[in-house]
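Onboarding guide, step 5: your first structure request.
Type a short instruction followed by the sequence, for example:

Predict the 3D structure of this protein.
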Amino acid sequence: MSDERVTVGFVGIGRMGEGMVRNLLAAGHPVSVYNRSAARAEALAADGARVAASPADAAAGAPLVISILADDASTEAMTTGPEGIAAGLAPGGVHACMATISVELGRRLAAAHAEAGQGYVSAPVFGRPPAAAAGALFVVAAGPEDALGRCAPAFDAMGQRTFEVGHDPVMANIVKIGGNFMLASLIETLGEAFALTRRYDVDPDRFLEILTGTVFPAPVYKIYGEMVASDRYEPAGFKLPLGLKDVGLALEAAQARTVPMPIGSLVRDQFLTALARGYHEFDWAGLGRVCAEDAGLPVRQEGEDAGLPVRQEGDDAELPVREGGE
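The system replies with structure tokens like these:
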């Protein structure tokens, strides 16, 4: 890990951003924070962050600005315009966008910063909020070599490893989009497999134990498998509407390069079905509920079968760091 200290502007203090900022501060990096809901930014003042009045203010005087926002619209709004990141960032400064955004927006942001004499890096992450809090994110970064080098001390403070994938920022965006498509597809197959085995009276917890103890030992199968097995999707670490957004980004990118993605189309429709049934607040693992309902299965009660412990509100904090997913 680098010992270099970098002044950082940080825009977007959601569940991910909160943990990321705290790790930057703990590593000794001065941080100015901005969030549209000011209370979330102000909560970090006690940790030593300076609360900025706008994205431009957060960028002022900082050689590096990091943003992690929900979608294309919020990312573009916080970057462009008279009070945006680009307006406050000095020539030669670098903007590292760590959100999951479209290929097209990635191109527009790179062009806008280049026109202003600024650097731009795409650096989306794999990891959910507990991983962000633990400084255990995986960063996928792409951009000019000098800009990547200037981001390295901050990335080291927030993540356990950085993967550099090229000099074109869009390359990092497409790696993240492809990875999230695979995670969404994994969740769908888990949901279908659990629905099938439940229909034959196989205990879901036993099925999960066998799967994760043999051919599918990866953490993501255990994390999402536990949620599907228990039929428990709140509180959400990554909400269903965001999953639909990311699968849409994959299909959009695929169409632009004439890449068929038939599984992507199916998974998109399953997300739409989940939202049509009112599951907006569910984790994206809630696709498992759709699969169970389509098979005519009842909602599984907490604690049902195999002595599964009933989870109380707030127990999610006891789960291990989640290394897969956003």
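Each response can be followed by summary notes, for example: The domain at 174-318 is CATH 1.10.1040.10 (N-(1-d-carboxylethyl)-l-norvaline Dehydrogenase; domain 2).
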